[in-house]
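I would like you to help me understand the sequence and structure tokens below and explain how sequence relates to structure.
___
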Amino acid sequence: MSTQVANTDSSTAADDPPATGVVPFQLTATNASSVPGSVYFNVFPPALTNIPATGQTITALVSPATTNSSPPVTMTWNGGPGALGLFALTDGADPARAEKTPVALGDTVAVAWANGAFTITPSPGGPAGVLTVTFAPGIPTGGSIGLVVGPAPILVPIPVSLSPLTLAPDLSPTVTVVFGTAFQLPVPDMSDESQAQTVTFKTDATSTSPMATASITVGLDNQIVETS
């Protein structure tokens, strides 16, 4: 697993009116660790299921700074098939600043380069359950495609050959959480992190507007434990 975009504003997306197929997620995280000073919760989406780990960079949503005397922090985002977004980046560009285009499973997404910027054009009618991304001639080399899945984007290099990419997101109600140094791109030379923990969210099926929720705590042993 790789690193995250340093974006601590997790409230905007989940505050928007729900769209079809959009599930609001809420993670409550408590720092009761033995670590002094400011520490962070880094929340990673599940990896793309059809691309090797070495071929994708999973980024994270980063909590505000916490200490072992802080109240619990709440992190929110939208997930589910209605919350997918796609963008393209030139080499070295900041994913946090990229404009995201809403996409849906089954779309074929045409990526082109015009007037010094990428254009993203999704169209329905592609293979079900995946996104098919095509590239027009003239796209700068060394760039990446970013697919927003749940809390954060997953980056995949644009093929040098500009051959089409197939992206298969895992939309299960899970994330991976790491506690410690705030992750960033590029990867820092030094960091101090806990063992990664998979967190599974629960939804109240009786609710008219169900939200997927989970709670975690980091205790004195600095291990992440899911509490609800």
